[in-house]
Structure formats: structure tokens, C-alpha cells
Amino acid sequence: MIEVPCGLCGRNEPEPVASDNGFRVCRCRGCGLVYVNPRPAEDELLVLYGEYHSRDGGDRDSWATLMRDVFRESAGILDAVRNGNGPGRVLDVGCGFGDFVSAMRDRGWHAEGLDPSPGVVGAATGKGLPVRLGTVQSLDPTAGQYDAVTMFYVLEHLPDPMGALRKAYDLLAPGGILLVRVPHTTPAVRMLAPFGIGASLYDAPYHLYDFSPTVLRKMMMKAGFVETRTFPGMPTRPSGFGPRTTSVFFGTLARGLYSASGGRFLLPGVSKTTVARKPD
User: Residue 94 in 3-state DSSP?
Assistant: First the structure.
């Protein structure tokens, strides 16, 4: 286990928020970033992530179903920002079984994937998809520039999310788009705390960070991105009637409130999509 400072401002002023699976979840008193501290060393985390997609009986089909609507919406966003220039080159970081890579290739994009789990990379390459084993920090930015980089439920797992955002910035061509999907767990944990439940939603130590929209925008701006926009994207569809019903209900509610407020209100506690651009 290692002690770490805040991943955004670098201060070492953690304020305890909750305890999950024996791990302390803290909030930085300086900038508000929520993170697990102390946490497993990076080599231990890679071992954990090697089994992540198979937890609780998860497999290729269940992950495809979970993310189906999110992927469809995100693909449409990337198509739209090309402004009629046709498909471009996209890198999906933490691509899992490669479903988004496959979807973008079907749309004519030159799509590639990257994941640290040998099992899912093997499954993806077995389908003929161009997916590599590794992390975003292992990529050489001179190897090529991308028109888009995507990270679906990835940033909260990374030991250095600020470094990952900076690396994504380097990998993008001028005017390129970064699309990030992250959970926002802390408000739900606070709401459920009086009932003695909720802390397990942090899913420590698989999740190392929890991002509010405000904090994530700060991080993206610090990495150099502009025109940052956060919105409640399409909800996920977990297996199981209860989790799926909850996700769809609150996801639909979040989208309705966002629309009714003219894009000003973001319902706390639900996952959100953030899109940002690298300056031309």
C-alpha cells in the first residue's frame, strides 16, 4: 500500500469521506478531488485489472449490452464533430472486448483499442480487431496522431488520471476530440450514508478516483483542453432487473432535467459524459 497526494493539485490534505473494502476514500481539501488513499501499488493494480471484466460473471456479451446505448450515442457525437470531413482515426483507451472499436470501424473510422487486460485483448484480437495490450502511458505519441480519443469508465481506474489526460492531449491532432465517461459516486454515497449503506458504490480499489463535473473540467483545462462540455449521456444497461431498472430510471431522469434546464442542471450521483477539444 502506498500513500499518494492529490492527483490534481498535488496537496496532501485528505479529508476522509468513507471506507470501502477496507480502503479509505478521501476528498482533497484543496481542490475537491475524491480519491483512494492509501492504495495498492501500480503493479498490484495491473493484476487486479486483469480480472476486472470477468468479475461477477461478466463476459463479452454482458459488457456489450451494458454499454450498447452509451457507445451508440458516443459514436454519433464523434461523427458529428467531424463536420462532414468523413471518418477519422480514433483510439479507445481501456477498450475491453473491443465493442466500441468494432462499432467505429463499422462507421468507416480507423479505430484502434488499448487495454491492460490480457484476457480481453486476446478476445478482441481473436475477432480480428486492432487492439493492443498496454496502458495509455505506454504509447509513443510520435507513433501517430488521432482525431479522437475515448475513455469509457477508465479514468477512475488509473493511478495518474492527470497524466493520462495530458497523454491523450499529446496523442490528438490539433482540433481533435477527447470523450470521457466517468461515474459520479460521492453524492449517492452521501445520500445513503444515514442508512449505513452506500460506501460500496466506490468499488475500491478497482476505482481509485471519483470525479465531479467541476473537478473533471479543471483537470481537462489543466491538460490543455478547451470547449469542455459535460452532460448526462445515455444510461448503461446492467444485467439484472434491479440494477438495470435503477440505471435507466436515474439516467433518464438526469437527461430530462438537463434538457428542461437548458443544459444547466446535472443530476448528482449519475454517470456523465464529458467532451473536450484540443486547440487547433
Answer: coil
